[in-house]
Amino acid sequence: MSTPSQGQLSRDEVAHLARLARLAVTDEELVLFAGQLAAVLDAVAQVGKAGVEDVPPTTHAVPMTNVMREDVVRPSLPRETVLAGAPAAEDDRFRVPRILQEEA
Amino acid sequence: MSTDTLVDYDQVLTRYEPVIGLETHVELGTASKMFCGCSTTFGAEPNTQTCPVCLGLPGSLPVANAMAIESTIRIGLALGCRIATWSRFARKNYFYPDIPKGFQTTQYDEPLCTAGHLDVEVDGETYRVEIERVHLEEDTGKNLHVGGATGRIHGADHSLIDYNRAGIPLVEIVTRPIPGAGAKAPEVAKAYVTELREILLALGVSEVRMEQGNLRCDVNTSLAPIGSLEWGTRTETKNVNSLRSVERAVRFEMRRQAALLDEGTRILQETRHFHEDTGTTSPGRSKEEATDYRYFPEPDLVPVAPDEEWVAKLAAMLPELPAARRSRLSDEWGITPTEMAWLVNAGAVELVSDTVAAGASPSDARKWWLGELARRANDAGTDLSDLAVTPAQVAELIGLISAGTINDQLARQALDGVLAGEGGPAAVVEARGLAVMGDSDELVAAVDAAIEANPDVAEKVRGGKVQAIGALVGAVMKTTRGKADAATVKRMLEERLTAS
Amino acid sequence: MSTSFTSMTVSELQAALADGATSADVTRTYLDRIEAEDGVLGAYLHVDPEAALERAAAVDASGKAGTGLAGIPVALKDVVVTEGIPTTSGSRILEGWKPPYDATVAARLAAAGTVLLGKTNMDEFAMGSSTENSAYGVTRNPWNPERIPGGSSGGSSAAVAGGLAPWAIGTDTGGSIRQPAALTGLVGHKPTYGSVSRYGLIAFSSSLDQAGPMARTVLDAALLHEAIGGHDPLDSTSIDVPVPVLAECARRGAEGDLSGLKVGVVRELGGQGHTDGYEQGVLDRFTEAVALLESMGAEVREVSCPAFDLALPAYYLIAPSEASSNLSRFDGVRYGLRVGDDGNHDLDEVMALTREQGFGAEVKRRIILGTYALSSGYYEAYYGQAQKVRTLISRDFSAAYADVDVLVSPTTPTVAFPLGSRVDDPVAMYAADLCTLPASLAGVPAISVPCGLSDGLPVGFQVMAPALADERCYQVAAALEAAQDAARGSRFLDQLPRRDAEPVGGAA
């Protein structure tokens, strides 16, 4: 495994990541974040130094398997409650502005 | 709509070899959702089957449905898959309003089942479809597009979302690419989905109602010049939602791609949509930049590690699978594979089997389900299995015919009564007075009346013109409104007219 | 009498309630103090005095006040979802959201008869070490209002230390209970991962988040932990073991006999060759505390855990990665803020505008960092590698616990730093978590208990134990607390002036 190049996060990359993450960042933020993230990346890239050959990743600190629930129906929330927090609702559904992208 | 140039289907095959592949999504028939206790009942009022978990409310956490996991393993076993000893859920991160968490919980590089196969038969030839993986995920909510033409996303003013479907367990079954089907590629695709549906029904894991979206197919199609060592660029046609459409979509894509290749245009690797009305496909809107789903193991769920004992228990509980069952029934019923294929296509295998089990002969059972009952279903525009008559009632009807209580014509009237909800066949025959007349006084009177009413015909018969007796038989049948047995009537007439 | 409620421990409040005081009296006293002091401290985001008093009166009417936790007021970090009560996680994006359900922790505390005082301030989505990242303003340290109260559970730490709550729930992802507890002179415990339900905690980093107690004494912390702990079928990562017996261990620990206990001092956390960034006052207090443990019979040795050096980089990859995904649900579709829905923007734009305006700078930085670390081509080098480093850290713990019963270190390298001093330097801010991160990454329990003052500000002593051996943390912490209290002749927090009288500090 190669150590990632350090401090190489360009403004364009930050802009791309912001788009992926649906953040309409401002130009000032782009500059600020690119600089700050370069410093952070420098720091975190140290993980690349670790000798981890044959080391399995830890995803759960306390290992468990096969945690399941029985297939039993439980009450749902009342619809008024469900829609109460919605920024916009119409015809008992959540309303959103027009969608340009087709689903993934 | 589409203005694509198309090549004649037969022409396509003279120059190109198709490779197809299918990704099939099956909504499982569990009572509750994949990660919460909300009901999965189809057709409920919008947003009435939701809770903090399937709405993705802050702080909520998923807990996996044991039945969904077992159903997935059973599907894998039925498809001859290797069942993973270690499997995990992963997050597929993307933004879309029908996914409540900003990611879909699915499986990525550690699916529950891998490396299976399904043999399908087309025109007497067997094709082996290799299964790459079977994995478990959650369904999305439903978007309703408002303000545009025909409810499509394009041109809509805004959209409305119902999360009742969000979180329903969804099994995805992915084939490996299927080469070598040639001209039969569209039919192989359809036969695969048909057979898969039969298996899912036999397993009882899903109702597999395609019209309710229980089963949805994405169909991959590519063409390569005959003799080429490399496969062509594939398109992925999304949401092909009927068996017939699977075949049509492949056929259309083959014809469309051939036209492009003929003129030297490269095929774009793209997502396309199938249109039921025209049988065509059209490109999806291409995204401005490549999507990066940033998969990673779902930290809110723990791994699923099916041990041998668990898998063996599930394997032992598998029902007889459709192919084996068809083969056994063909032998038992003495019918050819082609005749069995008719039953399969009509959706009548189970019905005939149940009818036979209720005492009818296989040939009578087949005759009724493929004949009169198929006609009724067709007239009513329903599936055979939705007719208001049970296999046991059909067997009873057949029994009444065999016993001579009724004839075929009366049986059809009895069936009218059964379908109208008047009761079982025997009860309808009784209530409507449909029983065949025996050698009864009423029949004797009818025979005598016919002779009396047609003295000239009677005289001809007496004079040796035996064939004239048919007119008298007809007269008796008419006055008895079909309830008499024609052979009996003929015998009685002969006794009277030749004895004197 | 009523003025002293705010400087009592919960054990003392229990006795007072059993002795005839009413929950309404106790609750009103706290509400009055919140009214008087919170303008300066900024510990609370939401207080509903009427609801609290109504609840207290109901508990009084039930006759249960004084039994168990019934009638005892409590504050919840605003990351804990509470039905019908505003829950923001310190973020503008959730402003005004009233959840339709209760977190398991909240439900258990309600079932125990506690009285909710309010929801406490925090770094937005628990991302921070100073509570300066809240969308709703900073929280100040009761010891010195020009200093930070720690974070992200800084509202809880300021409330409990400042006498605005007898105790509080915090959450800890990389140190967010222990670090603010240390910087405000409290006891704070991060339980074994999976031993307290995460259901209803607004997720920051799912594989690390744990809720736990923040209290004035070790015994109080143990009582609160017992009330919220135990298996929860709504959390798949919840461990199905009985609720631990902790208060008993705390009482036993306070007897001061540690003979036979093997204590490992982690070299990588402030030991020789690893003192960069540590204040001398912190190291001195720590060394004195270790000596105190030894004087009580503990067998102390130095232990090396080399992989701990990589805890900080591993944490700052794992937590932002998981956070980038956990925070994707805040898209303005189902709840919370929506920006730009004026007919001129499509949904994607509305989502991006909502998230841009709804999230603060630190949250955005971490989302971008996490998005990067998970993206194809970088996953293995960043997220994948960090998860492997996590394994190395767990192995270091296992190896150490083969030789010792508990590991100890300073809780933080420094005492509370001045407000504003690190906000523009994320890397410096992240260093505040240096000592708390290893236990977070390994999922093991760790407690912070006060061990003295440096420059007039509290220093925390961290005790880490093997998974599911939380009682050892309480036992050792209680021994240290008792020995120090005995030597001082008063409780640690009694050094903090005016806890039941005039407003703290004078700063605006």
TrEMBL record, chain A:
<keyword id="KW-0067">ATP-binding</keyword>
<keyword id="KW-0436">Ligase</keyword>
<dbReference type="GO" id="GO:0050566">
    <property type="term" value="F:asparaginyl-tRNA synthase (glutamine-hydrolyzing) activity"/>
</dbReference>
<comment type="similarity">
    <text>Belongs to the GatC family.</text>
</comment>
<dbReference type="GO" id="GO:0070681">
    <property type="term" value="P:glutaminyl-tRNAGln biosynthesis via transamidation"/>
</dbReference>
<comment type="subunit">
    <text>Heterotrimer of A, B and C subunits.</text>
</comment>
<dbReference type="GO" id="GO:0050567">
    <property type="term" value="F:glutaminyl-tRNA synthase (glutamine-hydrolyzing) activity"/>
</dbReference>
<dbReference type="InterPro" id="IPR036113">
    <property type="entry name" value="Asp/Glu-ADT_sf_sub_c"/>
</dbReference>
<keyword id="KW-0648">Protein biosynthesis</keyword>
<dbReference type="InterPro" id="IPR003837">
    <property type="entry name" value="GatC"/>
</dbReference>
<comment type="function">
    <text>Allows the formation of correctly charged Asn-tRNA(Asn) or Gln-tRNA(Gln) through the transamidation of misacylated Asp-tRNA(Asn) or Glu-tRNA(Gln) in organisms which lack either or both of asparaginyl-tRNA or glutaminyl-tRNA synthetases. The reaction takes place in the presence of glutamine and ATP through an activated phospho-Asp-tRNA(Asn) or phospho-Glu-tRNA(Gln).</text>
</comment>
<dbReference type="GO" id="GO:0006412">
    <property type="term" value="P:translation"/>
</dbReference>
<keyword id="KW-0547">Nucleotide-binding</keyword>
<dbReference type="Pfam" id="PF02686">
    <property type="entry name" value="GatC"/>
</dbReference>
<dbReference type="GO" id="GO:0006450">
    <property type="term" value="P:regulation of translational fidelity"/>
</dbReference>
UniProtKB/TrEMBL annotation, chain B:
<keyword id="KW-0648">Protein biosynthesis</keyword>
<dbReference type="GO" id="GO:0070681">
    <property type="term" value="P:glutaminyl-tRNAGln biosynthesis via transamidation"/>
</dbReference>
<dbReference type="GO" id="GO:0006412">
    <property type="term" value="P:translation"/>
</dbReference>
<dbReference type="GO" id="GO:0050567">
    <property type="term" value="F:glutaminyl-tRNA synthase (glutamine-hydrolyzing) activity"/>
</dbReference>
<comment type="subunit">
    <text>Heterotrimer of A, B and C subunits.</text>
</comment>
<keyword id="KW-0067">ATP-binding</keyword>
<dbReference type="GO" id="GO:0005524">
    <property type="term" value="F:ATP binding"/>
</dbReference>
<dbReference type="GO" id="GO:0016740">
    <property type="term" value="F:transferase activity"/>
</dbReference>
<dbReference type="InterPro" id="IPR003789">
    <property type="entry name" value="Asn/Gln_tRNA_amidoTrase-B-like"/>
</dbReference>
<comment type="similarity">
    <text>Belongs to the GatB/GatE family. GatB subfamily.</text>
</comment>
<keyword id="KW-0547">Nucleotide-binding</keyword>
<dbReference type="InterPro" id="IPR006075">
    <property type="entry name" value="Asn/Gln-tRNA_Trfase_suB/E_cat"/>
</dbReference>
<dbReference type="GO" id="GO:0050566">
    <property type="term" value="F:asparaginyl-tRNA synthase (glutamine-hydrolyzing) activity"/>
</dbReference>
<dbReference type="InterPro" id="IPR018027">
    <property type="entry name" value="Asn/Gln_amidotransferase"/>
</dbReference>
<dbReference type="InterPro" id="IPR023168">
    <property type="entry name" value="GatB_Yqey_C_2"/>
</dbReference>
From TrEMBL, chain C:
<comment type="function">
    <text>Allows the formation of correctly charged Gln-tRNA(Gln) through the transamidation of misacylated Glu-tRNA(Gln) in organisms which lack glutaminyl-tRNA synthetase. The reaction takes place in the presence of glutamine and ATP through an activated gamma-phospho-Glu-tRNA(Gln).</text>
</comment>
<feature type="domain" description="Amidase">
    <location>
        <begin position="25"/>
        <end position="473"/>
    </location>
</feature>
<dbReference type="InterPro" id="IPR036928">
    <property type="entry name" value="AS_sf"/>
</dbReference>
<dbReference type="InterPro" id="IPR000120">
    <property type="entry name" value="Amidase"/>
</dbReference>
<feature type="active site" description="Charge relay system">
    <location>
        <position position="152"/>
    </location>
</feature>
<dbReference type="GO" id="GO:0030956">
    <property type="term" value="C:glutamyl-tRNA(Gln) amidotransferase complex"/>
</dbReference>
<keyword id="KW-0547">Nucleotide-binding</keyword>
<protein>
    <recommendedName>
        <fullName>Glutamyl-tRNA(Gln) amidotransferase subunit A</fullName>
        <ecNumber>6.3.5.7</ecNumber>
    </recommendedName>
</protein>
<feature type="active site" description="Charge relay system">
    <location>
        <position position="77"/>
    </location>
</feature>
<dbReference type="InterPro" id="IPR023631">
    <property type="entry name" value="Amidase_dom"/>
</dbReference>
<keyword id="KW-0808">Transferase</keyword>
<keyword id="KW-0648">Protein biosynthesis</keyword>
<dbReference type="GO" id="GO:0016740">
    <property type="term" value="F:transferase activity"/>
</dbReference>
<dbReference type="GO" id="GO:0006412">
    <property type="term" value="P:translation"/>
</dbReference>
<dbReference type="Pfam" id="PF01425">
    <property type="entry name" value="Amidase"/>
</dbReference>
